[in-house]
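Q: Convert this sequence to structure tokens.
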Amino acid sequence: MFKRRFRLPSPALVISMITLSLVLGGTAVAATTAKHKDAKADTKLVKKLAPSLSVKHAKTATNATNAVNATNATNATNATNATNATNATNATNATTAGNASNLGGQPSSFYMPNSAIQRGTFILSQGTTGKVLFSDGPLSVTADCTLSGGVTTVNVNIVSTVDNWLDFNTVKPAASTVVNDSDSDSSTPGNHFGSNDRIDFTAPTGAAIRGQDVFGVNWPSTGQCYVSAWVVAI
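A:
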């Protein structure tokens, strides 16, 4: 019988097999680094297999992209929050600054509320009495429009329901005291007549009404009376 003789593989074949194993495992080794006589054959093999190779750890690259996107999203959110916070602070400061400027640096209690100012023009028909125009606590301003003997008369009255009140600087001891200004067409019935006066009276409780009025008869029509005034109730 003949004895079979096995030849050892050549160094080039061994290196080729190693290279092929590395390629199939996901790692490409440049054939140009092979330092043996069959380097050209190895390079040709690598080039042939290259189209079918896949990049290992591609998932890691995706995760890296997601991490970047997440960071960008966080940065965008933080930037938005910072902008909103700045805007909110600025808006608060602007409101505060505006109020401070409008009030001259004084608290709101330093100023008189709008409700303290009363104003109006009142037209009264003949026969109207005790028409309340303005009031503050125990004090009130009333008006009458009367016809007597063909004469139309208008009265503007200041009235207090408490004793010891002041008409300007004159003490009126009784609550029943009525002080009035009046005008009439007694000299020429049916014609317009008018006047004006100040209003200033104070109750012992501290309530007060101060202001200005104009009043007259036969306006806007004959037989009517009018009172136009403004007052501050303090």
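The first helix runs from residue 11 to 24.
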